[in-house]
Amino acid sequence: MRKRKKKNNLKKVVFTFILLSLLWIFGFYLYTTYQNIEINESSYTAKKTESTTEVQTVEKVEEESKKVADIIEETTSKVVGISKLKNTGSSILSKSDETELGLGTGIIVTDNGYILSNSHVTGEKYSICYITLENGNKYDGTVVWSDTDLDLSITKINAKNLECVELGDSDAVRVGETVYAIGNPIGYEFRRTVTSGIISAKNRTIKIEEEDKQSYMTDLIQTDATINPGNSGGPLITPSGQVIGINTVKISSAEGIGFAVPINIVKPIIESFKNTGNFEEATVGIYAYDKEVIPYLNSSFNANFDKGIYVAQIIKNGPASNTELKEGDIIESIDGKDLNTVNDLREYIYTKKQNDEVTLKIVRGKINREIKLTLGKK
Fold first, then answer.
1. Is the pLDDT of residue 179 over 80?
2. So what's the pLDDT on residue 1?
3. Helix, strand and coil in the chain, % to nearest 5
4. Has 151 been annotated as catalytic?
């Protein structure tokens, strides 16, 4: 009996020892595992990295903002004031009403004195207008080229070694991109005003009604950058300072709807004046419409085409009058260049000379054909 009791006590001691050993081992395991978990340190490190990144981003934004401001400041120095009436005051941009002086804006496009603006600002070819540079120097200007359909003109002043703007690619711009409009709204006090916005749309067509006449402007860039009276002829620029359009009109019955003529259309003309001092405009000898314009015309013109431009009229005794081209034809391409707007045709023709031969690809009903013609003088 005594031996059995001793044996039971021994078992209890052994069991207790084993249990305590297991508890100690388990406790030691938990302790060492907890010590190796670096939750706080890892979290702190991550937060520190995020904080550093945010600071760098803010600094980068500030840097970019300063860069844009520098570019705009540089571009405004190449913006000029234009008036149709000579002013005896200290500047042509006086406090007089804009309609009285015919105030507007222009940009220097060559270092030898060619100024790009709107035709409704400067007047037609051979008109005289008055130019004021940023440094206050004033010049008499002669309009050497003007197109009322495009509402663009080029004026020559007798000046050399001018700083000129950088021209961008208006075909490459996208809806939603940031743009800045620069101009001389209202009068002298607000000269070279800068407004910002985005490109709201491309290839816009609008109807212009004035003096009981209707006309259409096509392929325009729409922007919500504020354009006021006097901004006409001023540049629409990208954040890098490239001019992608010339501000022309705004919708007076709505806010934030302004339009600019794409710069690409006039590049060949600027280049010709810069290199030769002259530009002889060639022509196909037709009146044509974009697909987007035809619904405005309320006419029997056939608008059932997906691409190309509609030949509405062939000018009598013009280059096209002696060819197989007919009214109602759709011109899809010229020398292999696809046409979707009349400005596409203009832009290409501006690169050609009188007496150059071109090939038109046309569609007439179900008939496709090519027609060759020799360009004439406009």
1. yes
2. 52
3. 30, 35, 35
4. yes
